[in-house]
Every structure is written in C-alpha cells, then in structure tokens.
Amino acid sequence: MALPPEVCIRGAGIVGRTLALLLARERVRVALVAPAGGTARKDVRAYALNAASKALLESLRAWPDAAHATPVREMLVHGDGGGRVHFQARRHAVDALAWIVDVPALERQLADAVRFAPQVEVVDSPVAAPLTVVCEGRASATRELLGVHHEVTRYPQHAIAARLEAETPHDDTARQWFDAQGEVLALLPLGGPGSRHLALVWSVDQFRAPELMALDADAFCERVREACGGALGAFTLTSERAAWPLQRATAERWIGRFPAGDDGRPGGTWALAGDAAHTVHPLAGQGLNLGLADAAGLAQVIRSRDYWRSVGDERLLRRYERARRADVLAMGLATDGLQQLFSHTLEPLPQLRNWGMRGFDRTRLIKNWIARQAMGLA
Fold first, then answer.
1. CA proximity to 136, closest of 253, 276, 246, 299
2. Quick check: pTM over 0.85?
3. What are 160-214's pLDDT values in tens digits?
4. What is the rounded CA–CA span in Å between residue 375 and residue 378?
5. pLDDT tens, 25-64?
6. 3-class secondary structure, 127
7. Distance CA 293, CA 22 (A)
8. Which CATH number fits domain 7-153+246-374: 1.20.120.1760, 3.50.50.60, 3.40.120.10, 3.10.310.70?
C-alpha cells in the first residue's frame, strides 16, 4: 500500500475481514491486523446466518459453497410442557429461514477474498490511522486498554458445542428444546439436504457442564438423545467438544478518541464492532448477524459521508453508534427475556409459558413479523 491506511482494523475474524472488504470496495485504504500464528485446534462452531447476512457476504463473494452453508427450511421450538412453535420457510415465501454455516469454511472464504483486495494490507501489529476499528472479540485487549466499561450480565450457564451425526436425516430442520431448568439444546442441520450431520449448541447449567464434558463420547451422545426425546435417533460424536461461559454484555461507549500519541497520531478515533462491543445469549442464534450488521452499518456511514469529512470524524461515527446500539439492545432484551422466562420453575409460570407458545404458534401476523425480524427482512 503506497499511501498510509485510512482505517486500521484490529482483529481479523469474520467481522473484521468483512468490514475490511466492505471498506475496500469503497476504495478506503485498510490495514487489517492479523498476528501470525494461532491455534491449530479445529473450530466446531457453526453460525445461523439470516438473509441479510447472506446477501452481504454474497456481495463480497465470500459465501461458502452448498456443502458448508445448509438452508433451514423449517424450525421446531419445543417448550418444557408441551408448548411448541413451528416455523416454515414456505409460509413466509422465502427459500430458507436461515443458513447454518460452518465457521472454518466461512473464514477461509473471507481470507481468500482479503488476499485479492488491493486496498487491504494485512499487518502483524496495529498501525497509525485516522480511524481504528476494534473487532477483537469478547475478550478484546484494546477495549480494556482504552478503559471502556463493559457491562456484563453473566448467566449461570455454559455453552457446549460439538458436531454430531444422527441416525436419521435432519430434513433441513433446526430443532431447539427448552427444559424446565432453563437449559437450551439446539441441533442445527449441516452438510446440505439429505445429510445426517448436525451442529450441537447446548446451553447447560454451569455446574453440569464439566460433568458433560468429561463423559466419553457414547455417554455424551446418550445424554443428548435423552434431552431431545430421541427426535433423530441415536447420535455419533464426530468432533471434539468445546465449552465457554455465557454472558450478555454491552460496551458503555462504542466510539471515542485516542489520547494524543496513543495511536501514533493526535486526534485519531476508535470504534468497536462485533463481540468487542456486545454479546448476547446464543439461544436465538443472532450473535454473528449482529456483528455483520455492525460492519455493514459502519461501512454505510463511511460511504455516505460528506467528501470533506475524514473517516475518523466523531460526528460521523456517532451515527453508527446510535443506530447499532438500538438494534443490539432490542435483541439483547429479547434473548435475555426468553432465558429468564425458562429459568423459573415456580407454578403457574411453566404452564403459562407453554400456553403462550401454543398461542403464539397460532397467531399468523405476530409470528410472521417475528420471523421476518430474525431473518433480517423487516
């Protein structure tokens, strides 16, 4: 890059690389910080991406192939006492409710796209720029160095993720079970139509998680089968298991100005995006959708700026902060409310919530609105 960068992005994960490509498309010069090295452990996570995220990644030519992006044609949500909600793509006149995307495959697509983006230079350490965007994830070191207060609500749960093969095909259906203790089991379809491969995301009590992680493969699969009532028959574990604590968190500030000299030039500004700015409970599968919407929102604000404004103009960045904080707050409250609703066992709440699920399943207008919100089509 002959000229100095206009934006330095700290963090070369999915959100960081997506933002780099979006800005490069607008001919903004980007330095993308991607330290050498890293873990060789296979990532067993999978993300549920909505139509808005799919369209964004397709526009960057970074959408994975059909083997690594499985459409969800139906979704079944089961309560703890007979309640059930059934979503079908055809009833909403869409091809799919969401797509379950393999994380390593998506990361490879983005890395390849970055490699051929002439406006993006991959660097080992942060460089001076009018704007620094922090996309380092939930444990962001830069956010901590900036002294940004991170308001965290810790759930008494850990998420367990793994890959499974079921006895019967998944039929392009995502399935989710809430139990009376507030634990949530999700089985997400992988491998394309007709496949029996699944991504497991199981939010369990923090004291039960070590026990489940310590079980041998057969015993663990039997616990999963019991938890979902044998819906897909027996399971085979096809990957390692990963676990992490769950939390809802939001940064007090999403934008600011570096103290003079901290970033190599007085007056440089910073912005947070993705998990560095916010995290939500995974029960709605919206975490990465929110992060990609951050990247799209920030790129849109920069694209629409007056020609005389710098990309690091604080007034410009406040537009991004206001818009994205509102969306994240709404999703955070929704997921937190669901988690709280299913964590209480005192009667008559269990009966009421399952009655509510059955009623919701019959209300076409509200159900359609909720579905379009989740699909990013509202």
1. 276
2. yes
3. 999 999 999 999 999 988 887 778 899 999 998 889 999 999 999 999 999 999 9
4. 8
5. 999 999 999 977 654 457 788 899 999 999 999 999 999 9
6. coil
7. 12
8. 3.50.50.60
